[in-house]
Amino acid sequence: MSTVIDHGHADHAHGPAKGLMRWVLTTNHKDIGTMYLWFAFTMFLLGGSFAMVIRAELFQPGLQIVQPAFFNQMTTMHGLIMVFGAVMPAFVGLANWMIPLMIGAPDMALPRMNNFSFWLLPAAFLLLVSTLFTPGGGPNFGWTFYAPLSTTYAPESVTFFIFAIHLMGISSIMGAINVVATILNLRAPGMTLMKMPLFVWTWLITAFLLIAVMPVLAGCVTMMLMDIHFGTSFFSAAGGGDPVLFQHVFWFFGHPEVYIMILPAFGAVSSIIPTFSRKPLFGYTSMVYATASIAFLSFIVWAHHMFVVGIPLVGELFFMYATLLIAVPTGVKVFNWVSTMWQGSLTFETPMLFAVAFVILFTIGGFSGLMLAIAPADFQYHDTYFVVAHFHYVLVPGAIFGIFASAYYWLPKWTGHMYDETLGKLHFWLSFVGMNMAFFPMHFVGLAGMPRRVPDYNLQFADFNMVSSIGAFMFGATQIFFLFIVIKCIRGGPPAPAKPWDGAEGLEWSVPSPAPYHTFTTPPEVK
Amino acid sequence: MKPSLYSPCGSGLARDGGRSGAELPALRPSSQASQLPQKVQSQVGAMADSVPLKRLVTRLLILVLAMFAFGFALVPIYDVMCKAFGINGKTAGQYEGEQMVDPSRQVRVQFLSTNAIDMVWEFHSKADEIVVNPGAVNEMLFVAYNPTDKPMTAQAIPSISPAEAAMYFHKTECFCFTQQVLQPGERIEMPVRFIVDRAMPKDVKHLTLAYTLFDITARQPPVAVRTGG
Fold it and tell me: CATH number of B74-215: 2.60.370.10, 3.40.50.720, 2.10.109.10, 2.40.30.110?
C-alpha cells in the first residue's frame, strides 16, 4: 500500500509558470476557476449582445432591424449561451475557486480532468457560435430545441449544435464528478459534512443533479442525431416515434437543470447575508434539507412544462401539486434568509445589495412560477411573455445577481485589492433598475397575450415593449461597466486584508489576500 | 508511516485524512503538468470516512452511464405508459375481441385526414362523421390518391381525441397497421373497422379519429410493380 514518493522534499514554493502555457496546461484550481469566470463573462456579454438584438427588434412593432429567421437564431442562441455558456460555467468557476478554500483542500481532487473540463468549453462554444456563419444559419428552434423543429425542419447546422451540446455535457459531467470527489474526499480534518459552508453543500447537491441529468440530455441529442442522420424515428411520427417523447426526455433534463442554475446561488447568498448581517445563518440544517428536497422534487415535476400537450387529467394534477410543493422548501430558504437579517447589524456593501435584491426578486420569480404551476391557468399563460418574465426573474436577479454578489464578495480574496465600493453600488443600482424595467412589463404583456419568440407583435403591446427594451439596453450597458470595475480592482485599489468583511466566517478568510497560488498544503484544523 | 502525497500539478491528488496530519505533504517543485501514475493516487488513503478516490470516481462514472442508458430507456417506458394509460391518443394494435352492442347509447365519431408537410397525396375519408353504438363493429373508408408520376410509400399515424378515450377505441382492421404503396396516378380505398368499447366513460359522447399521412418513400422505397391488392 505505502508507495513512498519522495521528491527530495524540495520544499521551495513555486508559483505559476510564465506565459500563455500557464493557462493552457494549468491544473491549479485558482487558475482554472479564473478561466471559467472569464469565459462565463465573455459568454455573458455575447449572449447579452444577442439579447440586445432581440430587444432592438422588439423596440417597436413591425419588422425593423432583423429578419424573422435571424431573430429566431438570436432567441435560440441567447438562451443556449446564457444557460450553458454563462450561468453554468460561472458557477463552476466559483466552485473551482472557493470549494477547496472553503473545505481546506489544497486543490480539486482531479486537477487534470479539471483542466480538460474547462478547455472543452471554448471548443464547444466556438462550434456553436460558428453555426451562425453557415449558409443555412444557426439553430433557430428555441433553446429547448423541440423535435421536429430541431430534426425534420432544422437547418443543416443542427449537427454542429448537437456536438456542441455533447461537448458541454461532457465538460459539465467531468466538472461535477470533480466537485463531488473534492467535497467527499478532500475536506480538512474536522470539516464534517454538516460544518461545510452552504455554498459547498449546494454545490454538492448541484453536482449530483448534473451527474444525473446531463447524461439524459446527451441521450436526447444523440437520439436527435440518429433521427437526422441514421434513419431512426425516436421523435418522428412517420416511423412510429413521437415528438412528445422529445419533450418528456428534454424536460426530464430541463427541470433539474433550472435548479442547477439556482442552487449554487442559494449557497453563495447563504454565505453573504450572514456576513453583512453579522449573525450566523438562521436554520443551517433546514437549509441543507431544503436544498436536498428541492433537488429531489426537481425530478418529478418536469411535465409542468407540457401542460398543454395533452397529458391526462391525473397527470396534470400530479405535476401541478408536485410543482406547488417546491414552494415549501423554497419558502423555508427565503424565511431563513430573512430571519438571518432580522435584528442583525446590517450594512449594505455591494455583495449584500445584490444578495438582498436576490432574495426579493427571486421570490417574485418564484411567485410567478407558482402561477404558472397551476395547470388550468397555465393553459392561458403558456408560451406567452409571462413565462419569459418568470424565468428571467429567477435567472437574472436569481442566478446572475447571485454570481455578481459572489464576485464582489470574493474579489478581494481573488485579487488582493478592494473593489471600488461606489462604482460597485452604482453597478448594482443600474442593474437593479435596468433589470426590473426590462422584465417587469413582460408580466403585463404576457398576461395580455403576447406570445414568446416573435419578432413582431400587436400594436397594443408597443409601449410596454419599448420600456422593456430601454431597460434591457440599460442592463446590458451596465455590464460593460462591471467589466471596468473588475479590471480596475485587478489593477489596483486599497490592499485587502485576509478577512475584508468583519462579519465573515469560513476557512477562505484564513488565507492571505490575494490567495496564494497554493493554499492549505497543510490541512487546517477545523474545530 | 503512510505518505501524504500532494501534487498541485499532477494528475493525482489525495490526502491522508489527517491521520498523518503532522507530516507535511511533499510539494512537487515542477509546474509542468505531470506525472504521477494513476495507480498511485488510488493507493493513497482519502479521508477516514470516505471511499478512496478511484472507487468514488468509478461509482460516479457508472452513475453517468446508467443515466445515459436511462435516457434511452425513457423511450420504451414512454410507450408502455402511453399504452397503459391511453396517454397521447395513441391507439393499440389490432383488436381481436368482440362485444355486445349497446343500443341505448350513441357516440359521434369524427374523422380527420391530414397530410404531413411535403406529402402530396389526396387523402380523405368517405364521410366526415358517423354515429355509432358502443360495442358495434363499424367501418369507414378512406381514399388515397397518388397524383405524382412516381411510386410512393405512405404511412398513416392515428390519434384519438379526447386522449382518455384512446384505450376504448379498438381497431379490428386499419390501413395504419401497414404501409401503402401507390403507383403513379393510382387511387385506393382503405378500410378501417373499429369498435367503441362499451366501458368508455359516459361523459365521452364525441370522439375524433385523426390520421396524419406521412411520405416515407425515402425510408421504404416502393417496388416498381405492386404485388397485391
Answer: 2.60.370.10
Mean pLDDT (whole number) for A401-415: 97
Buried residues in B23-54 as b, exposed as e (16+ CB within 10 A): eebbbbebbebeebeeebbbbbbbbeebebbb
Instruction: Identify the DSSP state of B139.
Output: E
- State the pLDDT at residue A7: 47
Between A271 and B216, the higher pLDDT residue? A271
Annotated domain spans of chain A: 20-509
Prediction ipTM score: 0.89
Mean pLDDT of A8-36: 80
Mean pLDDT (chain A) is 93
pLDDT at residue number A413: 96
User: What is the CA B169 to chain-centroid distance, rounded?
Assistant: 21
The residue among A96, A112, A204, A250 with the most chain B CBs within 10 A of its CB, best to mutate, is A112
Suggest the residue from B64, B157, B180, B212 to mutate for an interface test with chain A (most A CBs closer than 10 A): B64
CB contact under 8 A, B70 and A215: yes
Task: Give yes or no for B25 touching A (CB within 8 A).
Answer: yes
Average pLDDT, integer, range B118-136 = 90
Question: Residue B114 contacts by C-beta under 8 Å, 6 or more apart in sequence?
Answer: B123, B210, B211, B212, B213
B157 contacts A238? CB cut-off 8 A: yes
Q: Which of A115, A152, A523 is the closest to B21 by Cβ?
A: A523
Residues of A labelled as active-site residues: 78, 107, 143, 171-172, 255, 257, 259, 270, 304-305, 330, 333, 452
Chain B residue closest in CA terms to A522: B24
> Does the domain formed by A20-509 have CATH 1.20.210.10?
yes
Pick the residue from chain A with its C-alpha nearest to B78.
A245
**What does pTM read for this prediction?**
0.85
User: pLDDT above 70 covers what percent of chain A?
Assistant: 97
When pLDDT is averaged across residues A454-470 and rounded to a whole number, the result is 95
Q: Is B51 on the interface with A (CB under 8 A)?
A: yes
**Domain limits of chain B?**
74-215
Q: Where are the alpha helices (DSSP H) in chain B?
A: 38-43, 53-85
